[in-house]
Amino acid sequence: MGRPAPKPQAKTGRSFPLLTGPAIVLATAIITVGAAGLVYLLSGAPRETKSSASPVATSQSRASAAVPARNFQALKGRWLRPDGGYVIELRDVDATGKLNAAYFNPQPIKVSRAEASRDGGMFKVFIELRDVGYPGSTYTLTYDPATDQLKGDYYQAAMRQTFDVGFVRLK
Fold first, then answer.
1. pLDDT tens digits, the chain, 171 residues: what are they?
2. How far is CA 120 from the centre of its chain?
3. What gap in Å lies between CA 132 and CA 109, rounded to an integer?
4. CA pair distance 34, 40, nearest whole angstrom
5. Which CATH architecture does the domain made up of 22-49+58-169 adopt?
């Protein structure tokens, strides 16, 4: 007389617990950020330690934003961040530097603020995201006309970390 045999369990076809609602959003955000971080680390790109404070537009950049809109036309278009498939779409810019912008990962993420400015001869782009998983994350980018790329920093607000990023124009 040994132990009684275990009762057979009904098979559900799943070997993991079912995730619903906010748990799916959180799990997706964690996986996305983790994958982007892994790609960045494996790329061997040099890394700077930066302040965890959220970037803020300075009064100087705001003052320089009031250049004619025709100067910002090179910024318009769809831009791909190759390390994660993220896309910024810069649709229009007015004379004050206010951008009509969209962000996709791959679904649309709400852009709460988008501005273009000019610092000397350089065009700058600032984009703030406010959506689930993006509580004030920002892009601070500079347009490089020689390579037709946007380069700069991505501040991931939930993790309080800043990453060097680049976007190439989609044709």
1. 566 655 554 444 444 455 565 655 555 555 555 555 444 444 444 444 344 443 444 333 443 434 344 478 889 999 999 998 999 999 988 878 889 999 999 999 999 999 999 988 899 999 999 999 899 999 999 999 999 999 999 999 999 999 999 999 997
2. 26
3. 8
4. 10
5. Beta Barrel (2.40)
